[in-house]
Specification:
The complex is a heterotrimer. Chain A is of the alpha/beta class. Chain A contains 16 helices and 13 strands. Chain A is about 35% helix and about 20% strand. Chain A is globular. The two termini of chain A are about 30 Å apart. Chain C is an all-alpha fold. Chain C has a single domain, classed as MetI-like (MetI-like fold). In chain C, helix 3 packs antiparallel against helix 4. The termini of chain C are close together. Chains A and B meet through helix 11 and helix 15 of A and helix 6 and helix 7 of B. Chain C: Its main location: membrane.
Chain lengths: ~400, ~300, ~300
Amino acid sequence: MANLAELKGLKVYFYDQRDKRFIRAVEDMEFEVEEGSIMGLVGESGCGKTITARSLMGLIDSYPGLIGGKFYFRPRPEDTLELVRNIRRGVSREKTHSRDVQYGSGSQKKPYKKDGMFDLFYGIEEFVTFKKKPFTIIKDTEKWLRRMDRIMENIRGKNISIVFQNPGLSLNPYIPVGLQFEKTLRRFNPGLKREEIRSRMLELFNSVKLYPGQKIIGMYPPSLSVGMAQRVVIAIAISSSPKLLIADEPTTGLDTSNRIRIIDLLLSLVNEKALTMIFISHNIGLVGSVADSITVMYAGYAVERGSNSVVIMSKKGPNHPYTEALLEVMPEESEIMAGRRLKVIEGNVPGNKIEIKGCPFMPRCRYARGKLAKLCENEKPELYEVEPEHFIRCFLFRE
Amino acid sequence: MGVILRAYRIKKHFYSGDRTTVIKACDEVNISIPEASIVGLVGESGCGKTTLARILLRLLEPDSGIIWFRDTNITSLAEKQLRPIRKYFQMIYQDSRSAFHPRMRVFDALKEPLRLYTDLHGRDLRDKIESLLEMVNLNKGLLFHFIGNLSGGEIKRLDIARALSINPEIIVADEPLSILDISIQSRIINLLLDAREKNGASILFISHDLGIVKMLSQKIYIMYGGRIVEIINKMKASFRPMHPYTMFLWEPRNGEFSVGFPPGGCVYKNNCLLYRDRGFPLLCAEVQPRLKKVSDGHWVACHFVKP
Amino acid sequence: MKRYFFEEPLVRPRLDEQFHVPIYRRASIRDVISIGFGLFVVSYLLTFFTISVTNLFIRDPMQVDMQNIFRPPSFEYIFGTDYLGRDIFSRIVKGTEAFFLPGLLSISVSTSMGLLFGIIAGFYPRSFGRIIFYILNIIDSVPRIIFIFIIIVIFKPSLYLIMTFVGVTSIPKVTSYIKSKVETLKRQRYIEACRGLGLSRAAIIFKHIVWLSCKSVLLIQATLGMGEAILIETSLSYLGIGVQEPTPSWGNMVAMGKDFFFQGKFWLSTIPAVVIMVTIMGLYLLSDGLNSVYNEKVSR
């Protein structure tokens, strides 16, 4: 199947005014999602997965924000024209004449289209770049953010939807569910009559198995149980029939039964409505049981990606040392009964305010010894294609 | 092996404002926790397990029932007499964030119990606190940060550090792993296992995850709707879930499930497949099943499970 | 980040929920100025009081010097001299004695009793709380000035007595603040956690409730109370009921000096009046700044 979205080289930095330092939220993130599949994004809290998700929707609003990357996305056919118009707007034409070879003259602009997908981050280099000295931004990013807003207006909610972790935070506790839902429905389907909106709401509640729909419309979010609230959020997210649904830790903190049901619901939505999903979690076991392809993230880097079978399922196959460690710390009963302790990943995730030389995982990596250690300490590995469609960011696999 | 904490017929009912609805958060609950062992308490959130935990530590008063700590009946003790004993039982809270004053600093929060129960001062105190942070893998740089600024996982680890700091004899851990990453969960599990092995502490491990509880505990209580529905002592009996709820937890399937406190009859009947398959027998609808011994170390509260 | 004047930025910065930044980082420029100015006022009050009490005057405020009457402000006499040749600056310094201790008395009464009653009322809202608020309502409805005059008539015009009374009349406000704080706090889970740790009730009350949470309220009320005390004392002295000549008080200096105002010798009354205004304003700004800093829920 063709790819629905491709992300390359995502870089998100924030600037702390008080400490006058840069915070590296995401350094180098990439992935590919096939249409109709589920991609799992695995990583510890703080590794940048939520920031990645939000930047896909253009929700980064702290200065300076998004500063690098290409995000190719295939929107719905009816939105294509609007999207192209917004992409091309705002990328200045005057500058192209005095520019160096990168841009050239008008007809040789950099491509924003690839395999029928459009680069939503097109033009970012023009707005925000680093100087030769690291950590210095030339232009301020506000103009870029404004432009981003324009592009994303069509995408957000309509083509890409997001479901967050805690439904209590996503729903306004002072407004009844029906009213919040109505707002979203009206935004994407202007000119609908009251009865139509109501029936659409009930239809969506049905598809997320929320009964009785009639009653839920009038309830306030705090009276709903967590499981029900999460379903409401999912219903609102799919109300516009998006192409991509991002689920950011949708089941963390829920009970077993709720978790099962939410996951079943998400899986059924993928199957029935041809939805594509990005499933974000820190629980590699959970992700492994639902996703078709996996991307593993650590300290702002994508350290491994590939299909589920090669990353998780195959025990003997090649893996990034971090993925390996993650898979090992899952508790096994036999170990505990025998009085042995569980394996832990030694060390801590590196702070995001300091600059990291070399591989970010090196201090905790069990393979960084001897001669290899020197290399890992001083140079940053790239994502090497170890097998077809299986990439690992580690010097162990560099030919 | 002695019993370190025992609760007999604990009852706690909550009434709605107009006294029309009753929530039987704890209904005739008996629990006994042996020394130096891990006892699991499993149930969905809202089944009353946190209420039970608070009652056991006498943070909440039961309507009736008796609690023994070793041989002392602590149910009727006045606060003043209870206070010195409190150092033997500590709790790790489900919502760790609410268990700390947000304006307090990490150092002060850990200093509190240490100052109360040990006489560490100055440099020794500082070293002990730093070692506690290391134990739960918290960055030393957080030492003087406000607790309100920490993330959920960090606060949970702080809660665990605070509870373990004075080496209590029994630790009530209410969902200790809930918001932690997988990579840290193993570390915390090791900590709890160490507390048991090295200090002889007992742990009441409360969770909704039967899998983890089964791996760690010697004895497992399954709770639903304020009642204990199954007890499995892994030391004496093999782990074979028999109550329909336990079977559901062990192998969850999809389907309708509601958490609640239905009045009258078996607490589980609204979700019970047995109830449904047997055509809604009157027995389940009217009579609350009692815990019956199925085999040595295995008790089940269900009309259809015969010893 | 650039600030927009009248238009909302297209990209709205997210308000972080309750980021507990330490005080010095949380203050806006306005607050810094308010608090800075207030602290400046407090520091000169303290200095003057210390000088006055230890009698370290450069020039004796009571020293009559008929050679040097009505000298305008100059390098030699910073604030000039009055109609008896006394140095006005030294008299201003000595004037702080008039309200300092009585003011402290007033705020001690109001904060300590307010704290006590507030805690009791907070912990026992239905029993003691009701009684306390009944009594406090009565106190609250008392018209202060009238009672001050009544006290002066019945008893001697002792400033300490008056200030005690003022303090008592401020108790209801403090009590209600403290009571509402206590009522919210006692339900918090961390108070239960403190019980679980085994902290004694006194420790919980003083450490967690008072020190960590009520500190701000008390400080602000104390600052306001002091400002109020100064206002009352100077007003009474101006009317001639408070501190009597020849002891200087800012109020009676204004009163004495007003006769000479239209003769062109404005500094006799203007200077004390300005000092009164600046001091009270400083204290009010201090309390305002503290209020805004402590109760601000939003930070950058």
